[in-house]
Amino acid sequence: MKRRLVLLLLAIAPALHAASFHATVTYVTDGDTLWVRPDGGGRTIELRLLDVDAPESCQPFGAQATQALRARVLHAAVRVRTRGSDSYGRQLAHVEHRREDVGRWLVANGYAWAMRFHGRPGKHGALEEQARRERKGLWASPGALEPRLFRQRFGSCPAAR
After folding, report:
1. Model-level pTM greater than 0.70?
2. Least packed by Cβ within 10 Å: which of 14, 63, 144, 160?
3. Would you please indicate which residues are annotated as catalytic (active-site) residues?
4. Which stretch is the leader sequence (predicted)?
């Protein structure tokens, strides 16, 4: 029994840590969280997109960000590159759909903020600035509140699963 458990853990470890694999999106939780089933089978894996922060589902533009991600990738084939996990047990990942980084697409179209690192613009900072200038998506209305600040002021949204 113990040996089977070790073999099972070794078999699924690549999909749980730093790994690259192809999968199908089975569910979209919100604007930066989705579930995938790896090609070849196995259990579904919850992913949190790296380098972006979409509005919370209960904050203004949260529903639009979620719907945009659903329309873009739900039931679609994607390439996943994981890099560890977060405190909620989600795998942190870059996800590509049709050779385009999904997080990049979200930021460029005004559905998410680019993550900042120590006060500096992150990987998609220039795309966020361009979306702001063009008043795309959440930038069409004044007063967009970063999800991090929204959570600090109002707490997390009730679970929608």
Report:
1. yes
2. 160
3. 48, 56, 90
4. 1-18
